[in-house]
Design goal:
Beta-Lactamase, single chain, alpha+beta, 5-stranded antiparallel β-sheet, globular
């Protein structure tokens, strides 16, 4: 990713002041990274587990299905604190996420990268990129994605802290 674009995107993410702006922030990330969608899930908070931002409906629905099933790439990333990359969800789901398999058969999403978001040592959720094509995320630069995920994590912590009374 162009370093100037990366700097501008990180600055824009840092300027988000409220939860309502997270959807458009996810949309900007999707365009900048040339992916089909971006979503942010929150898994540890006094707020319910939820999708706090999504660039589009398919991504939001996949994240909601994962939270409901209690499994999937975003849930695994949040639980383990490690990035989960899946080049083809339909291939991976059969063995890794059997409770999600039924949903994935109808979902247009095929590839996912889920990066954990942390608040100190505690995992609070995940930053999720997705593609409608198997291997559709192979072009991404991991270092750039990590920088964007860190900025998004900082913003989600700050914005949600006001909602759950920590600010």
């Amino acid at each position: 990713m162009d370093p100037h674009l990366l700097t501008a995107l990180v600055a824009a993410i840092g300027g988000v002041e409220d939860r309502a702006a997270l959807d458009s922030t996810c949309s900007a990330c999707a365009v900048a990274l040339d992916v089909d969608g971006v979503a942010v899930t929150l898994t540890r908070s006094s707020l319910d587990e939820s999708v706090v931002g999504a660039s589009d409906l398919p991504g939001k629905r996949l994240k909601e299905a994962e939270l409901s099933a209690g499994e999937g790439p975003c849930v695994d990333a949040a639980r383990t604190g490690r990035t989960v990359a899946t080049a083809d969800l339909t291939d991976a789901a059969d063995g890794q996420w059997p409770d999600l398999l039924g949903y994935l058969k109808t979902s247009p999403i095929r590839a996912v990268i889920a990066i954990p978001l942390a608040d100190g040592e505690e995992s609070i959720g995940s930053f999720n990129l997705y593609s409608a094509r198997p291997h559709g995320l192979d072009h991404l630069d991991p270092a750039s994605v990590e920088v964007i995920a860190t900025a998004m994590g900082d913003t989600v912590r700050r914005v949600t802290a006001h909602l759950d009374g920590r600010a």
